[in-house]
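Records of this kind hold a single protein each, on a pair of labelled lines. With that in mind, the following record should read easily:
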Amino acid sequence: MARMALEGIKVVDFSWVFAGPLITAYLGDYGAQVIKVESHSRLDLTRVSAPYKDGISGVNRSGSFPVANNSKYGITINLKHPQASALVRRLITWADIVVENFGTGAMERLGLGYEELKKMNPQIIMLSATIQGQTGPRSTFAGYGWNTVALTGIGNLTGWPDRSPVGTLQAYPDSVVPWFGVVALLSALDYRRRTGKGQYIDISQYETTSHILAPLLLNYMSNNRVATRAGNRSPYAAPHGVYRCQGDDRWCAITVFTETEWQAFCRVLGSPSWTKNEKFASLKGRRKNEDELNRLVEQWTINYTPEDVMARMQQAGVPAGIVKTNKEIFEDPQLEHRDYFQRVEHSEIGQIYQQAWPIEMSESKANVRPAPSLGEHNEYVATKILGLSDREFVDYLGAGVFE
């Protein structure tokens, strides 16, 4: 079997919810040895979030927790216990990387700030992913990804122009921050390989999420244009929308950017007389008469299933796609072909599906393993990874260090 890309890299994961845990899950999928540190007194919110397997609640039954905690060992430590410091020192001495995404100052209050970790392990790499970073007038700003959706202005961009902001269904920063975190950690590992020095990585979720809005920010810097809610419309394309199709609540998205695409679009519709109207002859005209254009497009799409609309448009070179349900995504033959949903065996809830990586590396395959139950690997980590004797483990357990 080929050596995994990150085999030999050791990670201590103090993070919770999504932004931090996804970083370490990605590392674990490619062979890094990741130990997730949890506490019974402060459960990861995703452990107590629906949906639950078979509708039965429990700290090991959530469908949210496995999404961000695959390929990890799970231990429970009472970090406030007076005897915990010696155990934590073993963890830090063992590790290459430490990841956390608590509020600014939380790790320092636990005696686990970067300066303290450096004393235990001078080559340690530490990453903190807080809402607005470790410095600045709002560095202590508390919140979650949904707060950041509003803070970055994404909430002001999603929705209809005549209605209030709607935000996003999920906390968008949780889908953005981990990729920056993984790249930063790989860069730090390469730097340490070349120099022998670790370093501290300070990630601002506010800044990483703002990064994806670069075109809109540049438009304001250059043209003083303030972006607002526009529904499904785009200044660069028309038609540009989601159109009702045959069936119950069935839709297809269609986008026409270029004149070549417009001509192909018209041919797919059978070149009805309205497509030859002068007011639709240019993008400017189509944008000006977009309400009427959208009604006319939907008069055609309503006669076909979204699959048929998509196939006809795609065959003609016009971008189009079905608006899918989660059921349709799970049953998608393209994702099945690429083994995107993988079956793993969870220690409590049995067989579940785990999303795999959206990339394939020819020489280093990902290996997705199930997320741990709460404290599942206390003994294994203590005795097999950290080298404690059975007696030492029992003493820690009896004292309440391992919760």
